[in-house]
Amino acid sequence: MQKLSLTQSLSQKLSPQQIQFIKLLQVPTAELETRIEEELEINPALEEGKEEPEEADNSEEFEETETTDLADDDVNIDDYLQDDYSGYKMQGDGPNPDDDDKEMPIAISSSLNEQLEIQLGYQNLGERETIIGKQLIGSIESDGYIRRELEAIVNDLAFAQNIETDPDELESVLMKIQTFDPPGIAARSLQECLQLQLERKLGEGEEVALALRIISDTFDEFTKKHYDKITKKIGIEDEDLLKEAVTVITKLNPKPGGVSGGLVKTQYLIPDFILNNNNGKMELSLNSRNAPELKVSRSYSDMLQAYGKSDKKDKKLKETVTFVKQKLDSAKWFIDAIKQRQNTLLNTMNAILQYQYDFFLEGDESKLKPMILKDIADRIHMDISTVSRVANSKSIQADIGIFPLKYFFSEGIATDSGEDVSSREVKNSLKELIDKEDKLKPLSDDKLEKYLKDKGYNIARRTVAKYREQLNIPVARLRKEL
């Protein structure tokens, strides 16, 4: 038997203003300009402009604007006519005689595929081969490799381009693409990638020819560093020549798509925070070169005031008033969200600065304290997710260098003295041990654990292995050299 009953529940939901604030909070300075331009395009009530700035709202709670019922005949106009929508100012706004007038450019670059297609155009290929070439280039992954089977690309061409072909024809076009820059591009395996690069170096010396033989004939042995087997299989008598050949191989690029190779223009990092050490006093500010001042359109405010004084209360007028109010609301919410973003960023970065003050003062990594998101969240009385959004994709420029905010967060490792040290300090000690080891007899993880414990770090072997992997350092067997 079915019954109907009423239940009452309480749930939390984010308002549109809060959602807008959260989205803006995780946008780095380099992308903020684009986000503001998008808002300016879709909202005519929002304008760029300079007005006398008022003090920023320092409240930590996001303020929601109370909206009136749009269905009412009487419209409260006064809420939308106040001049408290002043633009926001931070470091970098307006001329400063003490600062050089320098641009902070955003990176301008062209993709690897675009550059490869330009080189394809220099080959004077027919229409058919050009289409096949573009299909192959489109199959190249970000690291520069083609991992799709040629048979699968044959099917792609048949369905997408209506071109009947076979793997042999694809192979011939692929060989042309493999001559493009950067060297090693469009390889189907690491072995082929290294071979392509070595083939371009042939004629530069005996060691290059030997390196090509090693990769072509003893690739498996080389990856395992079984140099004795390589020597026997190829018949190498000159040990110095073998060392030179191995050096040539280690200088090759295993990921040709991961570097610019001179094809992409210089990248400039735009920091979100600027920290100056003024005789021991830390001065923190936000970088706002890419954030123009914003204000609510005066013409829209005047328009709403004029509609409010009108005696007509017909349907079209109400629809117009509703539209204007929505745009004014949206503009005010966006400006408030920008201000709240600035306050939250500064509050969070100030907390990080105070927590890691000794590091910022001296630039010594050993001064970094163990710090997790919760430590900062507790200090600024905000949720961990808010701190995470601030730390993600943000960076700070200080006198000691430019650092991503994630750099300052690390776990702690206990020491014999009962104190906690940053895992970054332990990693530095681990790297130092490996850098100084005898490469003929590399240190195992067990020995590394022992040496770290001798330094006072209470660390387990599995933690040593985890940190070693995070540092992209291979196991001892693969670190062995001739």
Structure report:
This protein is an alpha+beta fold and 482 residues long. The protein has four domains: 16-54 and 76-91 and 267-409, no CATH class; 109-180; 189-264; 412-479, Homeodomain-like (Arc Repressor Mutant, subunit A), CATH 1.10.10.60. 47% of the residues lie in helices and 7% in strands. It has 19 helices and eight strands. The chain has helices spanning 16-25, 29-42, 112-121, 127-138, 150-161, 167-177, 190-201, 206-217, 219-223, 227-234, 239-250, 298-309, 315-355, 357-362, 373-380, 384-391, 423-436, 445-454, 461-470; strands at 46-48, 273-278, 281-286, 294-296, 395-398, 401-404, 412-414, 420-422. The strands form three sheets. Strands 3-2-5-6 form a four-stranded mixed sheet, with helices on one face. The chain has a two-stranded antiparallel ribbon with strand order 1-4. A two-stranded antiparallel sheet has the order 7-8. A hairpin with a 5-residue loop joins strand 7 (412-414) and strand 8. Helix 4 packs across helix 6 (167-177), helix 8 crosses helix 11 and helix 13 packs across helix 15 (373-380). The longest helix has 41 residues, at 315-355. The chain is extended and about 100 Å long.
